[in-house]
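Appendix C. Worked example: chorismate mutase
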Amino acid sequence: MNLNELTNDWVNDFANPMIIAGPCSAESESQMLGTAKRLKESGAQISAFRAGIWKPRTKPNGFEGVGVIGLNWLKKVKEEYGFKTATEVANAHHVFAALEADVDILWIGARSTVNPFTVQEIAQALRGTNKPILVKNPVNPDLALWIGALERLLGQGIENVGAIHRGFSTYQKTKYRNIPNWQIALDFKNQFPNIPLFIDPSHICGNRTGLAGVAQEAFNVGYQGAIIESHEDPDNAWSDASQQITPEVLAEMISNLQIRNSDISGYEDEMGKHRTLISDMDFQLIELLSQRMKISEKIGTLKKENNIAIFQPERWKVITEYANQKASETGMSQDFIEKVFKAIHEESIEVQNGIMVNK
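Step 2, the predicted output written as structure tokens:
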């Protein structure tokens, strides 16, 4: 069996969209029960209550979770409020403890997904379970690692799986804590349409203000659920305070989300006309890019003959300034235009490097 053969019927047992919500970290029994109580009373339509029991932190000596005692608090949330429960596992010990506590849904975090040895250890510890296991994308933009983690689970007979898109680390300063890199997630969705895909706007945004927008973007392209951090007192949370929201805000956010219909029957003709035009324009773009690269080859030859460095910072500055100006004039996103021109510039450098080395 391969990943494309999985049915993942488990997701049909939950509401659409499937929302997993709760505090970033379990801090105390009262905090857990208090948050769960307000989630229940707020009317937030959530499918499972989440809380981090073990918290992998970037630096030592920070709060790294309460440990096994927090699993008892998750049990009480289930008993008193009827929520299914979910938590992250990062090694075999975590898996055995979470399974013993009958946590309903487990996920593998981004820092674990990046390490095949860790994922293999977790997969082997999970062998035989029919609980849903979700896998967050690795911290670095590596689609193969993400897929590989799911394949390791399947290799241990785990067939109820899902994927969580939580964004990717970058050295660049952006409005996101972890940039979405939507194309990587959409490539995953294209390859494995049968695997439920969840959005984690909390970790993508790193703040409260952008959560609804990122979640809506995900549902616009057919995601099936979201995992969102909610705390009874977000400002005083022990971890990731700035990205957590109150249960009441979460309830309002969920009620405002628009779930899109994937059925285009009745719109095929009109959609087909637009897609034909786009395909024609795409062809023209490819032709123009091909011509541009041929000019880059001539420039590369000239630079080689005259021993001139390939990268010219002043020229790149002129290009980016012009691109930003045209973006403003046409009403397009400057971020988008900059990404396009960076990709073109990188390929142009690659072409010229090839000439320097091979000719």
